[in-house]
Amino acid sequence: MSTRARFDRGHTDDLISFLAASPSPYHAVASAAERLEKAGFRQVGETDAWDASTGGKYVLRGGAIIAWFVPESATPHTPYRVIGAHTDSPNLRVKPLPDSGGHGWRQVAVEIYGGPLLNSWLDRDLGLAGRLSLRDGTSRLVNIDRALLRVPQLAIHMDRGVVSDGLKLDKQKHMQPIWGLGDDVREGDLIRFVAEECGLDAADITGWDLMTHPIEPPAYLGRDRELLAGPRMDNLLSVHACTAALATAATAPDADALPYIPVLAAFDHEENGSQSDTGADGPLLGTVLERSVFARGGTYEDKARAFAGTVCLSSDTGHAIHPNYAERHDPTHHPRANRGPILKVNVNNRYATDGGGRAVFAAACEKAGVPFQSFVSNNAMPCGTTIGPITAARHGIQTVDVGVAILSMHSARELCGADDPHMLADALLAFLEG
């Protein structure tokens, strides 16, 4: 029986909606919060006093969300089961002085965020999304989801060697998108346009975090629609799976008897090192977990006991075997699409998984009834990393790196098996349930 016949596509259909609604980290956490609200979670303010009430709660800070469910059975020293991910993806982000251009073209000045495959952003219709900071101290999400910008590639007639020598792109000179015609560069023009789109007065916008996004929607692909193509799957695929798993765990009939406190931790800024107040290398997760212990009447000793028994699954995408570049992969580890989530291993701690962590994930997959695969980098290739080692080192908790195998990682449009997201979510749910 094919995996397409085995698995319900409802989860992947919802993932498509989630990706489309989340063109920025700020939209992603808003989308996650909306799903958690429907599962009975409520937002708590970081500046408010927290109480000992049970149930689902979450904190929003910028492009990060920490959510947790306190069952009736919880004590001050009850350990946590954390599922972690990141909300950001490589892209082109608007500079503080965005209005530029020349030779009759009007352009937007952008900075390269993270490590995108630059060629994948060429000749692609782009929208603009992100967050506006207003004079009154509030913020507003904005999503201009239409063909607004484009980074045009140089015609082959002017670069005859591009096929034989490869495309060489200068991040400063070659990646500035066009958005109109005109000989004069008018300062403030882009922000005035964004303000009009949002029904705001441009004078009320005092700051912005804006970024481009491809407007082509996610879609099933292949003869049997067994693949999914879409933007930002690294790592909104994991954010969506984690959100679905936590919502399901919190609404199960026996949720109040859970032996652990299930937690979702979705951070921003993983693609550039995680060092921010909303990144995994910041204090946000530790502060939330500590405050939860103390709100339930716990002491420092209770917090230490809770952290000692805590386990985190750090979920991020990994590399599926590429049929055109198989030699770039480890010769004995070939993760394949629709064969289940991957366990990511690197003995130099680029991933946090060890043998004990493998056993934890194997037990979760066995309980969920899904297969899993192992990923190890080719020894001759540098290995990427995740929030896993950072989480383990910063909080002293056992952490395991897992995810879904994809192709075209860091492209403007990535590719995965359409059933793998559902299998990942099932494994995460089994982990949360203990």
TrEMBL record:
<feature type="binding site">
    <location>
        <position position="86"/>
    </location>
    <ligand>
        <name>Zn(2+)</name>
    </ligand>
</feature>
<keyword id="KW-0645">Protease</keyword>
<feature type="binding site">
    <location>
        <position position="410"/>
    </location>
    <ligand>
        <name>Zn(2+)</name>
    </ligand>
</feature>
<dbReference type="InterPro" id="IPR022984">
    <property type="entry name" value="M18_aminopeptidase_2"/>
</dbReference>
<feature type="binding site">
    <location>
        <position position="157"/>
    </location>
    <ligand>
        <name>Zn(2+)</name>
    </ligand>
</feature>
<protein>
    <recommendedName>
        <fullName>Probable M18 family aminopeptidase 2</fullName>
        <ecNumber>3.4.11.-</ecNumber>
    </recommendedName>
</protein>
<dbReference type="InterPro" id="IPR001948">
    <property type="entry name" value="Peptidase_M18"/>
</dbReference>
<dbReference type="GO" id="GO:0006508">
    <property type="term" value="P:proteolysis"/>
</dbReference>
<dbReference type="GO" id="GO:0008237">
    <property type="term" value="F:metallopeptidase activity"/>
</dbReference>
<dbReference type="GO" id="GO:0005737">
    <property type="term" value="C:cytoplasm"/>
</dbReference>
<dbReference type="GO" id="GO:0004177">
    <property type="term" value="F:aminopeptidase activity"/>
</dbReference>
<dbReference type="InterPro" id="IPR023358">
    <property type="entry name" value="Peptidase_M18_dom2"/>
</dbReference>
<keyword id="KW-0378">Hydrolase</keyword>
<keyword id="KW-0482">Metalloprotease</keyword>
<dbReference type="GO" id="GO:0008270">
    <property type="term" value="F:zinc ion binding"/>
</dbReference>
<keyword id="KW-0862">Zinc</keyword>
<comment type="similarity">
    <text>Belongs to the peptidase M18 family.</text>
</comment>
<keyword id="KW-0031">Aminopeptidase</keyword>
<keyword id="KW-0479">Metal-binding</keyword>
<dbReference type="Pfam" id="PF02127">
    <property type="entry name" value="Peptidase_M18"/>
</dbReference>
